[in-house]
């Protein structure tokens, strides 16, 4: 098959259905940009999990005098020095514990004033109203329940709190947004496939006389179908290139410049350029193969060869 013939037929087909070709390019670009964005969002969530879960602490808050009067967990009174010493000894013996840090009432009051000094409540608090606590760094953040089971309800312990639970709510929100993006991507992908099939159908119908003559002179089915398949593949590839551009530009302006989230949100460990660049070949391959396969199956119905 002459390459010049195939290329000329591709050009003719794309020009004849310019409006529909444009719609295919746009829908493929948007759907694959959402697909790539979803993959990057998933990488971002996993990166944040690895970064923050490694830093979360389990906090064991100890009973103070005011808790003894109002909290059922502290009904036996404020924590004693012996109870504090026993709690620390037991913590240090546990294999899941990496390190234990004690925070006194004065230290807790100081930290509270630093974080919430502008709050009206801060002016009415005194150090003796704050709770002593042990901050436990775990070797595996998933082992929180081991600490909770061992110390929750123990004499002198007001509560056991896991910071991972707060992060789980955040990551759950991000994953929910990711699922919504995937759902939108799936919808756009269906639209793109329908447009590709319709474009191929219109193109095959407009050239039915040419394909009929080609069949009469003995042209093979592959020879007749190839220009139509290549038209869809070229349109999809253009959309894939645009989708890659969207991802690169989005990463550049949202994280590095423009919004510059990497500078404004220093506590977030953002994904790097390597994560973006590794997704581009997948997007380009999908943009080429998806329309080509859709056109191939559409031709079996609309182009009898």
Automatic annotation (TrEMBL):
It is a multi-pass membrane protein. It is found in: Cell membrane. Residues 56-160 form the FtsX extracellular domain. The chain crosses the membrane at residues 21-41, 179-200, 232-255, 275-299. InterPro entries: ABC3_permease_C, FtsX, FtsX_actino, FtsX_ECD. Belongs to the ABC-4 integral membrane protein family. FtsX subfamily. Part of the ABC transporter FtsEX involved in cellular division. This is Cell division protein FtsX. It comes from Streptomyces pimonensis. The lineage of its organism: Bacteria, Bacillati, Actinomycetota, Actinomycetes, Kitasatosporales.
């Amino acid at each position: 098959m002459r390459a010049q013939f195939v290329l000329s037929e591709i050009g003719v087909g794309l020009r004849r259905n310019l409006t529909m070709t444009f719609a295919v390019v746009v829908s493929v670009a948007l759907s694959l940009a959402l697909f790539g964005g979803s993959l990057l969002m998933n990488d971002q969530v996993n990166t944040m999990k690895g970064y923050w879960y490694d830093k979360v602490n389990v906090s064991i808050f100890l009973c103070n005098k005011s808790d003894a009067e109002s909290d059922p967990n502290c009904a036996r009174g404020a924590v004693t020095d012996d109870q504090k010493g026993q709690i620390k000894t037991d913590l240090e013996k546990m294999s899941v514990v990496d390190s234990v840090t004690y925070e006194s009432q004065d230290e807790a009051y100081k930290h509270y004033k630093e974080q919430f000094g502008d709050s009206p409540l801060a002016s009415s608090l005194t150090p003796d109203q704050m709770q002593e606590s042990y901050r436990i760094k775990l070797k595996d953040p998933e082992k929180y329940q081991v600490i909770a089971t061992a110390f929750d309800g123990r004499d002198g312990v007001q509560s056991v709190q896991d910071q991972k639970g707060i992060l789980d709510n955040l990551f759950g929100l991000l994953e929910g947004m990711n699922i919504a993006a995937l759902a939108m991507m799936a919808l756009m992908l269906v639209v793109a496939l329908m447009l590709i099939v319709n474009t191929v159908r219109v193109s095959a119908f407009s050239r039915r006389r040419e394909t009929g003559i080609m069949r009469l002179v003995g042209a093979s089915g592959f020879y007749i179908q190839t220009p139509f398949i290549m038209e869809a593949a070229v349109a999809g590839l253009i959309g894939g290139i645009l989708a890659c551009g969207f991802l690169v530009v989005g990463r550049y302006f949202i994280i590095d410049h423009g919004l510059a989230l990497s500078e404004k949100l220093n506590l977030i460990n953002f994904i790097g350029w390597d994560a973006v660049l590794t997704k581009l070949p997948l997007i380009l391959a999908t943009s080429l193969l998806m329309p080509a396969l859709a056109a191939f199956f559409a031709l079996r119905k609309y182009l009898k060869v």
